[in-house]
Amino acid sequence: MAAQPRTALRHEPSADDDAFARDVIGGLTGRPKRLSPKYFYDESGARLFEQITALPEYYPTRCELSILCDNAAAIARFIPAGAALVEFGSGSSKKARCLLATAPKISAYVPVDISSEMLAREAQGLRRDYPQLPVLPVEADFTLPFRLPAMLAGAARAGFFPGSTIGNFEPHEGCAFLRHARAMLGSAATLIIGVDLVKDAAILNAAYDDAAGVTAKFNLNLLTRINRELGANFDLTTFSHEAFYNSERHRIEMHLASKKRQKVRVAGRVIDFRAGETIHTENSYKYTLESFGALARGAGWTPAAVWTDAKGYFSVQALVAQEE
Ligand code: AVJ
Predict the structure, then answer these.
(1) Which residue has the CA at smallest separation from atom 12 of ligand 1?
(2) Residue 34, helix vs strand vs coil
(3) How close is the Cα of 231 to the center of ligand 1, in Å?
(4) Which residue, 60, 92, 195, 315, shows the most beta carbons closer than 10 Å to its own?
């Protein structure tokens, strides 16, 4: 592979803006009110998420990084020789660095993310640290179909989907995503995926409702973004952050609760809130090794190896594509 693009492949911005407006209006006029967690990550949201990953209560990032670094050689053995490593939702690329440092056989690194600022910054750092490695960023919403760089035609591909971002999907959507990833990566592919595990509710609740209030800021930032980008007039002091483990559905739920009855203007519409009514902003599903194994098998993948931290809080799993 020779020349590499210096800028990310861009989607039509106006189409993105329309999708955001449509999703927000649809979500706020529905019952119950909801917003997609993928919209958390504007520039300040991405920064707040980075702060979350350093919180004492937020164990997933630390657990996953230690699993990746402690087992990097064993994990790298699942990446086919000469494969391009495609990371879904690359964020700061910190986790990929663990694999890039130990997997000498990677032919290109393809970070896929919706935060263009973060992508550009990280690509620059990676090119500096790995001058031999083609870094081919793709600016895309990986929950929707997107195109891989043409340069990857013919190359083997390994997927990397850390962070337990799979937990943001409903299980049936997670299944659809895994199928789509298999189709995009090809029949010889491996997928290295981070999956957060079911555990004591107190630990989960603390991880999503931290004492310093960073997760609350992260959640409320969604309203700031809607105010700015869609000309809305949410008063942030009248909404509160709620996060709790729903043990029947094995998921953390995050909501923004209106402290009073009120009307809010959003993109030319008036949205009514009852006192205490919530906007459901995120689900973060937790799996057991069995329940995730079943999901993966149903989506065309065979679980081939699992690594966990000492406390069994988090897992990194290697999936290999099932035969056609
Ligand atoms: C990025 C989806 C994995 O669910 O733990 C962290 C997002 N939300 N704190 C998660 C998040 C609140 C995070 N994921």
Answers:
(1) 208
(2) strand
(3) 27
(4) 195
**The tokens 């850390």 sit on which residue?**
162
Lowest mean pLDDT among 70-84, 93-107, 186-200, 239-253: 93-107
118 — pLDDT class (breaks 50, 70, 90): confident
User: Is the Cβ–Cβ distance between 159 and 191 less than 8 Å?
Assistant: yes
Helix (H, G, I), strand (E, B) or coil at 116: helix
Structure tokens, 144: 């929707």
Structure confidence at residue 79 (pLDDT): 92
Q: Please, are residues 195 and 317 in contact by the beta-carbon 8 Å criterion? A: yes
Question: Rounded to the nearest 5°, which phi and psi values hold at 170?
Answer: -60, 150
pLDDT at residue 13 in the model? 45
State yes or no: pLDDT of 309 exceeds 80. yes
Ordered DSSP codes for 123-140: HHHHHHH-TTS-B--EE-
| Structure confidence at residue 93 (pLDDT) | 81
Which of these, 300, 237, 304, lies nearest to 264 by C-alpha position? 237
For the entire predicted model, the pTM comes to 0.92
State the distance between the two ends of the chain, measured CA to CA, in whole angstroms: 29
Nearest CA residue ID for atom 14, ligand 1:
165
Of 282, 287, 314, best ligand 1 pocket probe by most atoms within 8 Å of the beta carbon: 282
- Give residues (CB < 6 A) around ligand 1: 52, 60, 163-165, 167-168, 208, 215, 282, 284
User: What's the rounded Cα separation, in Å, for the pair 60 and 264?
Assistant: 35
What does the pLDDT average to over 11-30? 81
Tokens 């083997």 found at? 156
Beta strand ranges found along 215-322 (DSSP E) = 239-246, 251-258, 262-266, 269-273, 278-285, 301-308, 314-321
